[in-house]
Design a protein that fits this description.
By secondary structure, the chain is of the alpha+beta class. The protein contains 4 helices and 17 strands. The longest helix is centred in the N-terminal third of the chain and has 33 residues, at 2-34.
Length: 369
C-alpha cells in the first residue's frame, strides 16, 4: 500500500515539474518575441486616410481633432506634461547619426485664436538616389502621432534629390495643451509606380519641445526608419561566359538586427537561384553564433547559360538560427538584372554582366521583407 502511495506521489511530482518547465519555456519564448517588437514605427500598411493630398494641386485646411487616436486632457496641465514627456521618450531617435540620408526643411506656427497648427513643408536636400536614373521621386507623409491612421502627403517631385515642396498643412481644433502631447512625424518616400514606395528617411519632433510664441523654422537630418535597419551584407559577383559559371561570394555582414533576448543573433545565409518565380537551387552558409558582424567568406557557384543570365536572380536571405521554434529572417536582398530589390542590387548584377570574368564587390543594405 505504501509503495502505491509513493508511486502516486512521484507521478504527481513529475507532472508538476513538467508543467512548470512548459510554463517556463513559454515565458522565455514570449520574452524572446516581445524583445523584437518595434514601438516607434507607424504601420505603413494601414488604410490611407481620406485626407491624402498626393497629386493634388492645392493643400487645404484639414480637421484633425475628431480623428485623434489619443485625446489629451485639456483641463489638467500636469497630465499634459506627463504625456509630453512619455511621448518624447518614446520617439527619441536612437539611429546611427553617421548614416546620412539627407535633410528636410520645414516650419511650424501656431494660431492661438483659432487653435490651429500650421505646418509648412518647404524642401529636401541631398536625398539618396533610389532609382536607376540616379535620382528619386520624393514626397513627404505627415502624421501627428500617436494618430497613425490619418496621414497627409505632399505632391511628388519627379527626378530630384533636392525637392522643393512649399506646401502648407493646417491642423485645426488643437488647444495648446493637447498639441503638446503630440509628436510630428515627417516621413520622406520615393514614389514607385510599379512597386511599393521606398522609404528614404524620417524625422520625429515632439511638439512639447517647440516654442510656439513665434514661427519656428527647422532643418532636420533624416534618419533611416528603425524597422528598415536590418544591417548590411558585403558580397561579390563574378560570371564566366566561357564555362557558364555564376559565382556569388558572401564576404561578411555588419550591424545585423538583433533577434535574440541577449541582444545578438545566430546568423547564417540562405541563397536561392531563381528563374523568374521558380526556385531552382539552394545553398547555405554555416551558422555563426552570438554575433551581429559575422565573417562568412563562403562562395557558391551556379551553372547558368549565357542566354539565361539576364533571366535569373539570386534571392539572398540572412537568417537567425533558433533552437526553439522557426528560424527568423533578419533581412534579404534580391540580386537581379531587371527587378532587383533595389537600385544597388540591380546595378551590381549589371556590372557583373558588363565585366565578365571580373569580381565585382559591393555592400548592400538588407531589406526587412
Amino acid at each position: 500500500m505504501a509503495s502505491i502511495i509513493l508511486i502516486a506521489c512521484l507521478a504527481i511530482l513529475g507532472l508538476i515539474i513538467a508543467i512548470a518547465l512548459f510554463l517556463a519555456g513559454g515565458y522565455l519564448w514570449w520574452r524572446h518575441k516581445r524583445s523584437q517588437l518595434q514601438f516607434i514605427e507607424p504601420n505603413e500598411d494601414e488604410e490611407s486616410s481620406s485626407y491624402s493630398l498626393r497629386g493634388g494641386s492645392v493643400t487645404t485646411p484639414t480637421k484633425a481633432s475628431n480623428t485623434s487616436a489619443l485625446a489629451a486632457n485639456d483641463g489638467t496641465s500636469k497630465d499634459s506634461a506627463n504625456k509630453s514627456i512619455s511621448m518624447t521618450d518614446m520617439y527619441l531617435d536612437s539611429n546611427d547619426p553617421s548614416e546620412n540620408v539627407g535633410q528636410i526643411h520645414f516650419s511650424l506656427e501656431y494660431d492661438f485664436q483659432n487653435t490651429t497648427l500650421i505646418l509648412k513643408v518647404l524642401q529636401g536636400k541631398e536625398l539618396p538616389a533610389k532609382d536607376l536614373s540616379g535620382t528619386s521621386d520624393p514626397y513627404v507623409r505627415v502624421t501627428l502621432l500617436p494618430d497613425k491612421k490619418h496621414r497627409l502627403e505632399t505632391k511628388i517631385k519627379r527626378r530630384t534629390l533636392n525637392p522643393r515642396w512649399n506646401e502648407t498643412f493646417y491642423f485645426e481644433g488643437f488647444p495648446i495643451q493637447k498639441l503638446q502631447s503630440r509628436v510630428l512625424h515627417l516621413h520622406v518616400f520615393d514614389y514607385d509606380r510599379f512597386s511599393r514606395d521606398d522609404s528614404i528617411g524620417e524625422v520625429f519632433l515632439p511638439l512639447c519641445q517647440v516654442d510656439f510664441a513665434g514661427k519656428q523654422s527647422f532643418w532636420k537630418a533624416l534618419k533611416p526608419p528603425a524597422k528598415d535597419k536590418c544591417g548590411e551584407l558585403l558580397s561579390s559577383l563574378c560570371y564566366h561566359p566561357s564555362n557558364s559559371i555564376l559565382t556569388l561570394t558572401l564576404i561578411k555582414a555588419r550591424n545585423l538586427k538583433a533577434k535574440d533576448i541577449n541582444g545578438k543573433s545566430d546568423p547564417y545565409v540562405k541563397v536561392w537561384l531563381q528563374f523568374g518565380d521558380k526556385r531552382v537551387e539552394k545553398r547555405k552558409t554555416p551558422i555563426f553564433t552570438c554575433t551581429l558582424n559575422p565573417v562568412f567568406n563562403e562562395s557558391f557557384s551556379f551553372n547558368v547559360p549565357w542566354e539565361k543570365i539576364r533571366e535569373c536572380s539570386l534571392d539572398v536571405m540572412v537568417m537567425d538560427f533558433d533552437n526553439i521554434g522557426r528560424n527568423e529572417l533578419i533581412g534579404r536582398i534580391l540580386l537581379a538584372g531587371k527587378n532587383g530589390s533595389g537600385a544597388s542590387e540591380t546595378k551590381h548584377w549589371q556590372d557583373m554582366i558588363s565585366k565578365p570574368k571580373q569580381t565585382v564587390v559591393q555592400w548592400h543594405r538588407l531589406k526587412p521583407e
